Amino acid sequence: MIIDFHVHIIRREFHADEILEAYLEPLKELEALLPRNDDELALWSNSENDHERLLESMDASGIDVSVALPIDWGMIGTTHATLEHYMDWLFEGCQSHDRIIPFMGLDPRRPDARELLDRICRRWEPKGMKVYPPTGFRPDDPDIRWLWDELDDRSMIVVSHTGAAWGPLYKDLAHPKYFDPVAEAHPDLVIVLAHLGGEYHDEMWDVVERHDNIYTDISALQGWLPRRRDMVLQRLRSVAERIPERALLGTDWALFELNYPNQLFMNWLRDEDWASPSVSNAILGGNAQRILGL
Ligand SMILES: [Zn+2]
User: Fold this and answer.
1) How far does the centroid of ligand 1 lie from the alpha carbon of residue 249, in Å?
2) What are the CA-CA distances from residue 278 to residues 1, 190, 281, 284, 285 (Å)?
3) How far is the CA of 47 from the centre of ligand 1 (A)?
4) Angle made by CA atoms 247, 257, 15, in degrees to the nearest 5
5) 103 falls in which pLDDT band (50, 70, 90)?
6) How much is the average pLDDT of 5-32?
7) What is the spatial distance between Cα 111 and Cα 89, in angstroms, rounded to a whole number?
8) From ligand 1's centre to the CA of 161, what distance in Å?
């Protein structure tokens, strides 16, 4: 079974305006691709998509199950819908599709964060939560320790962004090392550090090797393909060798559909020699199947 542990299903109104602007920034030189008004922006796959489009992409790329990770942008800028509305839309859309597993998203700095967590959990029983520290919190901050306690009590999986962040986001908060004390205090909490740590790749290794409950996903490696193929292969080979049971396939769909689409990435992963068949099966699905209890 092939499981993509890192995709995003999102509509325009759930993004913060400031975040969309920031994500568009690196593309500003490619003017022809840029949306010129709201209608065009809505059609742009990076800013808006839905459950059906994800399923089409999964079929085309040979992915059986995807984990959808919503991000709570509400504390960093102006969104046009409430977090609960976003969660309702995401989870309702998954009810008729058992191939998509939605997690919830939450910024623990929200004044009503505890109540929101409780309400969303009671309503939708998510298997996990996506957190995005660069919106403004440090994972080891004692003020948010309650969040890790709650997620641990509820046996929910945590997925955190690590690595690059720009625009109004705080990249310094995206360090893997801030999860060190969290993993230490919660040895049963499964924590997935996304993107192999991204630009903090070496630091990711320190944390992953110290804690058996820390996992990582390979999403966003496509950003370096095809130009830095050797570097990507080297990263894949080291996770295959060092943590074959704690690395997960992730694609970050639909972020790379413009430059390195999922179909291409999945074919590349199948064709290249980066792990034995049993290890690649584990990384492309078996490990995710185990932690999701599928
Ligand atoms: Zn992502």
Assistant:
1) 12
2) 12, 22, 5, 10, 11
3) 12
4) 85
5) very high
6) 79
7) 23
8) 7
Q: Is the CB of residue 134 less than 8 Å from the CB of residue 161?
A: yes
Q: DSSP letter for 285, please.
A: I
For the chain, which domains are there?
A: 3-292 (3.20.20.140)
Please give the structure tokens belonging to residue 73.
């942008």
The lowest-confidence range among 40-49, 124-133, 141-150, 242-251 is 40-49
Distance 230 CA to ligand 1 centre (A): 23
- By mean pLDDT, which of 26-35, 135-144, 210-219 is the weakest? 26-35
In tens, the pLDDT along 227-278 reads: 999 999 999 999 999 999 999 999 999 989 888 999 999 999 999 999 999 9
**Cα-only R_g, the chain:** 18
Asked if 20 and 255 touch (Cβ cutoff 8 Å), the reply is no
**CB 198, CB 232: distance < 8 Å:** no
- For the question of whether the overall pTM of this predicted structure is more than 0.90, the answer is yes
Ligand 1 centroid distance, CA of 159 (Å): 10
Q: CA 192, CA 167: separation in Å to the nearest integer? A: 24
Ligand 1 centre distance from Cα of residue 108 (Å): 18
